[in-house]
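So, could you explain the following?
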Amino acid sequence: EWSAKKADTPYGSMPLLTLTDGTVIAQQRAILRFVGKETGLYPLEDHVKAAKVDELMDALEDIGATVMKVAQGQEKSAVMVARAAACTEKDGSVYQVLEKINAQLAGGGYAVGTELTIADLLLYSGCSNLISGLFDGVPTNTLDAFDKITAIRKNVRSLPVVDAWYAAKDAAKVPASFGKLE
């Protein structure tokens, strides 16, 4: 089914958002920014804050790219060992990316400023994916050393609308990394 639809997408990829008037918006961050602007989760009047939201979203992209470079082309057993070290050792490449991101976060449970933005949502989903088992060799405790990242994940996951959304899902199909954080 996807191969038949792929040619009709603007860039040959997902995700896509189709508006009620038929307008199609492609690409994850474009969709996220659009939804953020429509819902008040993207700063419209404060251009510096908007740039900081965008900056963080771009930096979050570095996490997956860095993980994928670790032990690229090696056998699975070597990947598992190398990625675990890259994530948990202070001189590890993934650890260093996470450390830099953590240092740039505002604190107080929010990524930028003192209110929820789309940067918080992307951080929550991206970091939860990181430790979900999606990437071979990434330990589930990879984020434990990063207090601000952990606080944002807890804050987003505890939002009533997020909690309700997960409560409506089949728990067996949701990775544990997306569960409630204590």
